[in-house]
């Protein structure tokens, strides 16, 4: 992307070469148990009905969301800057920077992110009300605010929400770009409470959400995502360093289109 990835295939998120050392510093990978869950349904480039989060999670059993690395750019204080303690990080619209940042806005195809946090021990039938989720992802050029050249003074595409009585959090964002070496994705951390999240302490789960290929292809055909077309062409979910061991429980269900934007939904058992 305009020179941002010319130094190698993993400049921004690093694949395993960056991710595994960061994960080792944060926590050991959780051992996963229980039956595999039915994949959440992807979509065509335009409208399609979203799968029910609760039915998708419990149809064939329930296990915690796979534990993944937060990558080199979490912004949670574990690897440099800490955005979680800044006033204004609790918000639903994460397209704009806030606080003492440069005040920029991330441009791109609109994306609504809906994550439903449920209790894995209950068979994914009980929503986790009062938990908190921190999400972050790159912009359409593949850059991460706070870290990447040109956007170190921005903190957009990062935000925290408290789960409602349905266990849901909703964020207004833009569809992320694809940079070299990683499948299009977003990161998230789950906390027991909003107080824990804004204190940047006691993370319960760290994982990533993957986007379906047909949606990526549709988005990347629009203005501003030109470099993503090239970067995605040599990638697959099966070969991605994070999702290659299985992505069924991390693949978002999608509705919408490039005109009005997409909605990505995922059930997150914890």
Number of strands: 8
CATH architectural designation? Sandwich
Shape summary: globular
Poorly predicted runs of 5 or more residues: 1-60
Strand count, sense and closure of the main sheet? 4 strands, mixed
The portion of residues assigned to helices is 10-25%
Radius of gyration: 17 Å
What structural class results from the helix and strand content? alpha+beta
Trace the largest sheet across and list its strands: 4-1-8-7
CATH 4th-level superfamily: Aromatic compound dioxygenase
The number of distinct helices, counting runs of at least 4 residues, comes to 5
Q: Any idea of the CATH topology?
A: Protocatechuate 3,4-Dioxygenase, subunit A
| Portion in strands | 15-25%
Number of domains as seen in the coordinates = 1
What average pLDDT do the residues reach?
A: 84
The CATH class label is Mainly Beta
Order of helices and strands: HHEEEEEHEHHEE
